[in-house]
Write a structure and sequence with these properties.
Layout lengths: L3 H65 L1 E4 L2 E4 L16 E9 L12 E2 L3 E4 L4 E8 L4 E6 L12 E6 L2 E8 L5 E6 L11 E6 L26
Parallel strand pairs: 3-6, 5-11
Antiparallel strand pairs: 1-2, 2-8, 3-4, 6-9, 7-8, 7-10, 10-11
Length: about 230
């Protein structure tokens, strides 16, 4: 009995220690392997997910370029550029016109009541001219040179747009049709049109002046600061 008891207690102790060791060992193994496995899986699935998203956005971008004729990068965006498709009423390109235009708050200074501006507010071109626009943005915000009223079979929604994000320059070209017309040019960022970023492109004889072009025409609805008495 005396011999057996220590043996029994020893064996019980050994069993406890063994069990504890196995438990802690397995939990160590579990603790080291399990999170590794999980993180590995997470990373893999994340990579797959990222890859999926990446290819998806690339596809969307390509589709966008195809459908709306848009190219974009970190510096900005060009929509509906047309360097070579002649409008159907134009037998050939009549002349090459280059418009170097600057955009920024400093160009609003000569025009009271405006905040944003272009350095020029009017341009001239012959019917069927190819016009290359170099838009330089001197501000740290977005500005656009957006023209409306072009033939919709060449320019979706009748628009051609250059947008520059912050201080940079972007170039793109378009071809005007044969009609004599005055086209509206503006920056469509909220409040910029209203606060001075409005201009006109006259093709041929044009069709009069558009209202509220800084330095060119009076506003359609003038500001009235008369105090009510
Ligand atoms: Cu703007």
């Amino acid at each position: 009995m005396i011999n057996k008891k220590p043996l029994k207690s020893f064996s019980t102790w050994t069993l406890v220690v063994l069990t504890l060791s196995i438990n802690s060992l397995s939990s160590v193994v579990y603790a080291t392997e399990s999170p590794l496995d999980t993180s590995k899986l997470d990373t893999e699935s994340q990579q797959k997910h990222d890859h999926h998203n990446h290819s998806h956005s690339e596809k969307e971008l390509t589709e966008g370029m195809h459908h709306s004729n848009m190219r974009m990068d970190q510096e900005g965006m060009v929509m509906n550029e047309n360097k070579d498709q002649l409008p159907k009423d134009c037998p050939k390109i009549s002349e090459e016109v280059t418009i170097d235009v600057k955009a920024g708050v400093k160009y609003a200074e000569p025009y009271p009541g405006t905040v944003f501006g272009f350095d020029q507010h009017q341009w001239q071109a012959k019917p069927c001219a190819r016009i290359t626009v170099n838009l330089t943005n001197d501000d740290d915000i977005r500005h656009q040179w957006m023209i409306h009223g072009l033939p919709k079979y060449l320019y979706p929604k009748g628009m051609f747009t250059i947008e520059v994000n912050g201080s940079a320059k972007k170039t793109a070209a378009f071809i005007v049709p044969s009609s004599h017309y005055t086209y509206l040019v503006h920056c469509d960022i909220a409040q910029h049109t209203e606060k001075g970023m409005k201009a006109q492109l006259k093709v041929g004889n044009g069709r009069g002046d558009l209202p509220s072009i800084p330095g060119i025409s009076n506003p359609a609805v003038p500001d009235n600061f008369t105090t009510l008495r």
